[in-house]
Amino acid sequence: MTSIRQLHQQLVNKEKTAVEIATEFLARIEALEPQVKSFLHLTPDLALAQARKVDEKIARGESLHLLAGIPIALKDNLCTKGIPTTCASRILENFVPPYESTVTQKLRDLGAVIVGKTNLDEFAMGSSTENSGYHVTANPWDLSRVPGGSSGGSAAAVAAQECVVALGSDTGGSIRQPASFCGVVGLKPTYGLVSRFGLVAYASSLDQIGPFGRTVEDAAILLQAIAGYDPQDSTSLNLPIPDYSQFLKTSLKGLKIGVIKETFGEGLDQVVAEAVNQALAQLKALGATIKEISCPRFRYGLPTYYIIAPSEASANLARYDGVKYGIREDADSLIDMYTKTRAKGFGAEVKRRIMLGTYTLSAGYYDAYYLKAQKVRTLIKEDFDRAFQSVDVLVSPTSPTTAFKAGEKTADPLSMYLSDLMTIPVNLAGLPGLSLPCGFDGQGLPIGLQLVGNVLREDQLFHVAHAYEQSTDWHKRQPSFTN
Ligand code: GLN
Fold it and tell me: Is the whole-model pTM more than 0.90?
């Protein structure tokens, strides 16, 4: 297993050049992609150009950022100047952004080696990456299963070691659920911690960009690089960012951990419940005190989300009209052109959400649905506020099941929506959430543990996650087909 620090050491000690590292990863991508299909576009020229710049820096004796020369993949809903950005939608098939997102610009400036743009559910709507308008990505642990979603391409690429770290976005679980399905670490930061300038909007009151890594430390290093105030995103918080590396400790003495009672109910796989219970015993052995916590309104998260997210999506996606971006269908009138373009360009799930959201925002139903959902959202936030008065970090399974088979849930949207039952309330409350591996089921599929922190307490998530990870071997396992 290769971590950021190991590669950094190899570069600094001149054991390998950045070009050699980039070439190795590009070769690995070429070998594995026919089966995993994590990527929508590869960017070998950009990767090698970045690597050459890093090698020149080393030759000049300049100091190197930890991410310099590190192969990284980007979810394809992050705008990259001069590189196609499709959001896995046919409507943006030919879209090449004229500008760069803040987070990817930061990574380019630090010398990170961008190897490509990863697959997702169209416009980040989905939990399996099967809603991509292009192809389905496989789970590296079992190629007949989904990698989760919507950031399934990023999670699969990290699990298959096609890159070291990756960026995803999380509106209702899209980083944590695929991290759980693919056996890697994924973090959704506090709302406002990371700039979303250049992230294609899905549901703006929920969307956050966050890191994937094979270790907690790698995820922390990537978050450190992308977090921070950005005047170009009015929702970004103007606060100092702590040095997360200081919190990667191994003892949990004095820490209070709450187990969310309601996440152990109906629909939870036995094997997932057992793995999470064992993880709790381990956290206790590391010095934490464990206490059961009730968040009674947690269960309203899913219906609340499926009103708020589609409402916001219906507004955000109005811009794809064939005039300004992407494809355009010829027609005799303007209205016909809009209609034909949108009918052809959007997939079924995106259309379903636009219709749902248009309905819930319509004059006659706004109060009954949208306004009510916003009120319930406040109640859910209150449950968390109360919980954090008595504990530091909350724990739950990340997802009720391990990775399901491709095709298993595509005909039943409701069962697909249920895989985000435990991640969605965290977005509604704007809190940070992290998923990390806590075991494997009988078929060798990874199980994820979700840690939820209070606002801006990513430090505590890293602390608990690192201590747990270092006391287990889960992160050292690799999917056998990638060897
Ligand atoms: N699966 C959820 C949805 O379909 C969450 C997606 C996300 O976080 N982008 O909306």
Answer: yes
